[in-house]
Design brief:
Length: about 350
């Protein structure tokens, strides 16, 4: 049956939650992706992706991994068993969709669009979408009164607006449109408030897919809608013209400065020690204050990885903005995880097989 995969995926995500901690973790060596058993005794390296492009996505708190395969497509790997559970084509431009406190992933399977959410059965969308606009870096107040929308690009290069509260059904009352922008009201003593949307042609709203900021204004006509998608009027795609129509001071998202991002932030040297916890710290190298060395402070600042040059990045999860480190060897590009608090993996262990640790 064409959609028998539904039960399989539901079973897969349900089984994930029956386990306590993930047993497998990805790493890269010389551009190739591998998966390590946290015991360090077993390396899972299926031929379907070990020599592939090396792209992968982490689902949830290391519950599973979506891995790009050699022959195209993507495979969902269970982080608890290391087994492949599902194959399709992940919309990597979209990535993780954030809907309130939940995460979804857009897949193409057998010519259909499917949304997957951990712990739930998949949702097959009524239309096959080329891709869905990413929203992980959206402003917090883009969800107004509990409402959220997804902007889904169809094969004819026009958009549907999907409503998560209605099982991701499209808003059928909207005219065909090729581009869009968001309208915010400027408040004197409070953050800006999302109050509407601009819909129009690519010529009027000159944005590329996924672009939120840096969109030039134009004197071409666009349609203005409130957050319930009731039409308010037609004006030029200019802030002043839209403000006059709405009779209030507004700002277009396309004209705004991107908000700062603190998720998965790079750890930058500050000529001083960065304390990770009571056992591990990053300290400046003696011969190069711009280079950080990962050390065990309880063992006299013993280097954990030696003295080679490494780059560090905090990996954020819903539990913590600084949950663990992703470490990259500057010379080879090899990267791996280091869980300094033991939230998900064994504490203080470089999560890469010993025979791949080719550094001093």
């Amino acid at each position: 049956m064409k959609f028998i995969f539904a039960f399989i995926i539901f079973f897969f995500f349900s089984c994930v939650f029956a386990q306590e901690r993930p047993q497998f973790v990805p790493f890269k060596f010389e551009g190739k992706l591998g998966i390590l058993n946290v015991s360090g005794t077993e390396l899972v390296s299926p031929d379907s992706f070990i020599n592939g492009p090396g792209n992968y996505d982490v689902v949830g708190d290391f519950q599973s991994y979506i891995v790009a395969k050699n022959e195209g497509g993507d495979e969902v790997i269970d982080a608890y068993s290391g087994k492949a559970q599902f194959s399709g084509y992940l919309d990597r431009t979209c990535g993780r969709l954030r809907i309130k406190n939940d995460s979804y992933y857009h897949f193409e399977l057998n010519g259909n669009s499917v949304l997957l959410r951990p712990g739930n059965s998949p949702i097959r969308l009524a239309t096959h979408y080329k891709k869905i606009e990413p929203n992980i870096d959206a402003w917090d107040n883009e969800s107004l009164d509990g409402k959220q929308y997804l902007w889904a690009l169809k094969t004819d290069e026009t958009y549907d607006v999907l409503t998560p509260d209605n099982n991701f059904a499209p808003i059928n009352s909207l005219p065909s449109f090729e581009s869009f922008d968001l309208i915010y009201r400027i408040n004197e003593n409070a953050p800006m408030t999302l109050i509407g949307f601009v819909l129009g042609s690519k010529t009027a709203i000159q944005r590329v897919f996924g672009q939120k900021y840096g969109i030039p204004e134009s004197n071409l006509a666009v349609e203005i809608y409130n957050t319930d998608f009731s039409k308010l009027g037609t004006v030029a795609y200019e802030r002043d013209a839209i403000a006059q129509l709405l009779n209030q001071e507004i700002e277009l998202q396309g004209s705004m400065i991107p908000p700062p991002s603190i998720s998965n932030q790079i750890v930058t040297p500050q000529n001083k020690a960065i304390v990770l916890n009571n056992e591990f710290s990053l300290i400046p190298a003696k011969d190069d204050q711009t280079q950080l060395i990962l050390v065990n402070t309880q063992q006299g600042n013993l280097p954990v990885l030696g003295n080679d040059r490494f780059d560090y990045r905090y990996i954020s999860t819903p539990k913590s903005l600084k949950a663990l480190l992703q470490i990259r060897h500057a010379e080879t590009g090899t990267f791996f995880y280091f869980d300094f608090n033991g939230l998900y993996f064994p504490k203080g262990i470089p999560l890469i097989p010993k025979n791949y640790r080719k550094w001093k």
